[in-house]
Specification:
Glutaredoxin, 5-stranded mixed β-sheet, single chain, 10 helices, 5 strands, alpha+beta, about 55% helix
Length: about 210
């Protein structure tokens, strides 16, 4: 019998993977797609890499450490921006968590959230569960965390993330957009490591044309 935790994970995962199969069908032909309409980026002169993800997405959990390692080896002309996605109201608390960690300067806990959910089976799908993990496991100050979690700044960042997802027509996770022009994913690149390799190739391609 499936546990409640497994049912919750499945529910969230289905929201992000509902349209993954149609995209996967393209994987054999091209490891990335060129967007019909290039988007203005928010990173100035830097080459912007947007990673659209969800903490409950198993594919995102697999890609995250690989992308993190790649990010740490990039020069200053690359800006990697993580964009948490909420396809429904139930996914918003974890979207809110990412921007809370960002606002507190604790994005070092980013991979830890994936581990807590997917390896340690921590139930942190609502504010109470998230707060328990953040304060008891991650050791964050309860008042500072609560104030930041419910702050205007965090909610503004969530709104911007939703706008980006809509603008790029993101319908599954993870997906990586490079320089507002190219999109790749494990489905398109046919693997997690391949996604990072393709992202790196696109960044180098863009750098060479500047």
């Amino acid at each position: 019998m499936r546990t409640l935790f497994q049912r919750l994970i499945s529910t969230f995962a289905l929201a992000g993977a509902a349209m993954l199969l149609p995209v996967a069908a393209q994987a054999q032909s091209t490891p990335y797609v060129t967007l019909e309409r290039p988007h203005q980026t928010d990173s100035g002169d830097k080459i912007e890499v947007l990673e659209f993800f969800s903490y409950t997405c198993g594919h995102c959990a697999a890609l995250a450490p690989l992308l993190d390692t790649w990010t740490k080896n990039q020069p200053d002309d690359v800006a990697v921006v993580h964009v948490p996605i909420a396809f429904n109201a139930g996914m918003r608390p974890l979207q809110q968590l990412y921007y809370t960690l960002e606002a507190m300067g604790r994005t070092d806990l980013h991979l830890g959230v994936f581990r807590a959910i997917h390896e340690q089976r921590t139930r942190m799908f609502d504010e109470a569960g998230i707060t328990k993990w953040a304060t008891e496991t991650a050791g964050l100050d309860p008042k500072v965390f609560a104030d930041t979690y419910n702050s205007f700044g965090v909610h503004s960042r969530m709104q911007r993330a939703n706008q980006l997802a809509e603008s790029y027509a993101i319908d599954s996770t993870p997906q990586v957009v490079v320089d507002g022009r190219f999109l790749t994913s494990p489905a398109l690149a046919n693997g997690y490591a391949q996604t990072v390799t393709q992202t790196d190739a696109l960044v180098k391609q863009i750098r060479a044309t500047r």
